[in-house]
Amino acid sequence: MRTRFRNGIDRRQFLAGSAITAGVLAAPGVLRAAPSSIKIGLIHPVTGALAYSGTQCRAGGELAISDINAAGGIKSLGGAKLEAILGDSLSKPDVGASETAKAIEAGACGIVAGYASAITLATSQEAAKTNTPHVVDVGVTDTIVTRGLKNTFRFSPGYGKIASDAVTALAQINKDAGSPAKTVVIVHEDSAFGAGTAKLLSEKLPEHGFKILAVISHPTPMRDFTNIALQIKSVQPDIVIPANYYNEYVLLARTIRQQQVKAKAIYSVLGGAASSFKFVKDFPQAAEGVMDCNHWYNPKSDLALARKAAVEAKGLFYTYEVYLTYNAVALLADAIERAGSTDKEKVIAALNSSTWDKHGMPYGLTRFVNGQNEGAQPVNTQVQNGKIDVIRPAEFASAKPIFPLT
Questions:
Q1: Domain span at residue 74?
Q2: What is the CATH number of the domain that holds 219?
Q3: Separation of alpha carbons 294 and 312, rounded Å
Q4: H-state helical runs in 71-130
């Protein structure tokens, strides 16, 4: 005779169900046998004026996810695999914010974004509403990490450090050559990145004896630099310093050459194309001799060289967008691994305690202070004989500066 309960389940069914439940509770590992994926939002401008750089960022982020999954996923969570939630900001800050919100609603436990400074300001602010960890790949305006957002972490240096290092390096390069350069023209795009960089340079260059003849602003996109090139030519500066994104940088450099603007150097600070293999390949004459202070990988790192080879095997250029986004994803994954959780507070705590060193960059250990990686630094590069060499700091250098050019 079966004892039947009020809900219609008899005693044997109840005991069988209880046994299964007890077995599961006694062996919680059964619940982790098939871990669900861990979702990460990758928000970048893959269409619009910044599409090339945004597409490179996305490629770097997806490659990192592929490599991490191939190596066993997040081991502290039973080998859970990473899954990208892709968002296209259309090169617009407001769209970047809405794409970030969509990714979080879809279950993203962290965000990696958003290339341009203006877009990154918007994506990090949106992520802060839900305290979602946000790792910045490229955005350089220092406002990103000085607003007090506890969820925001920038792996690479900002333009404050880069501009300071750039001016110090330029002054030393000039001094080593007998100080032939005395005057400068700055050309910059007019968003947060370019305007902020120009402001810092305008403050620091005179401290090293350089006279600024003009500071010229332009919008993005910009289709014709003829008038700006003629402005530069009219004042005859010793050094031209561009601070703009890829398309505008290429067009400016080509126009300067076409208009036969003579300068002792084109010395970029965060030049959008100056440290780009694509620029060197597509426009070798315009690129030759260009110097830059920018993000760069460690050319003496086996890890970096292996990643570079893997990227190039896919038919891509190993640009800063690729390896900075790769590292931003890998850094976030390391934090999730150490946290052993996708809980946002725990991941943020893990990021704050990071000492990550698997980056292949000319950096020290990753160490965050108020969201900024204090272990990060830029390097100086120069296009010499059709290839990009590191010229400073000495411990990473593969060539000496060629200066002046004329």
A1: 38-156+300-375
A2: 3.40.50.2300
A3: 21
A4: 93-105, 117-128
Considering the domain architecture, whether residues 269 and 172 belong to the same structural domain is answered as yes
pLDDT at 288 over 70: yes
User: Phi and psi of 38, rounded to 5°?
Assistant: -110, 115
pLDDT at residue 185 is higher than 50 = yes
Phi-psi sector, 205: left (phi>0), alpha (psi -120 to 50), beta: alpha
Domain check: are 63 and 139 in the same one? Answer: yes
Q: Are residues 385 and 344 in the same domain?
A: no
Bridge partners for 387 per DSSP? 384
Tokens of 131: 């305290």
| Cα distance between residue 319 and residue 275, in whole Å | 8
Rounded to 5, what percent of the chain is helix, strand, coil? 45, 20, 35
CA distance 333 to 327: 10
Q: Is 356 left (phi over 0), alpha (psi -120 to 50) or beta?
A: beta
Residues 134 and 43 in one domain: yes
**Is the Cβ–Cβ distance between 321 and 139 less than 8 Å?**
no
Residue type present at position 338: R
Nearest to 38 by CA among 1, 85, 3: 85
DSSP state for residue 4 in the 8-state scheme? B
Residues 6+ apart with CB under 8 A from 169: 293, 380, 392
Structure tokens given for 381: 């590069």
Whether 309 maps to a domain, the answer reads yes
Q: Which amino acid is at 159?
A: Y
**373 and 363 Cβ atoms separated by less than 8 Å:** yes
Residue 36 pLDDT: 85
Order across the sheet with 291-294: list the strands.
Answer: 211-218, 183-189, 239-243, 265-269, 291-294, 379-384, 387-392
Tell me: pLDDT of 393 over 80: yes
The length of the chain in residues reads 406
Asked if 43 and 140 sit in the same domain, the reply is yes
pTM: 0.86
d(CA 85, CA 329): 12
| 150 plus 206 within the same structural domain | no
CA 148, 149, 154, 160 dihedral sign is negative
Residue 152: band (very low, low, confident or very high) from pLDDT cuts 50, 70, 90? very high
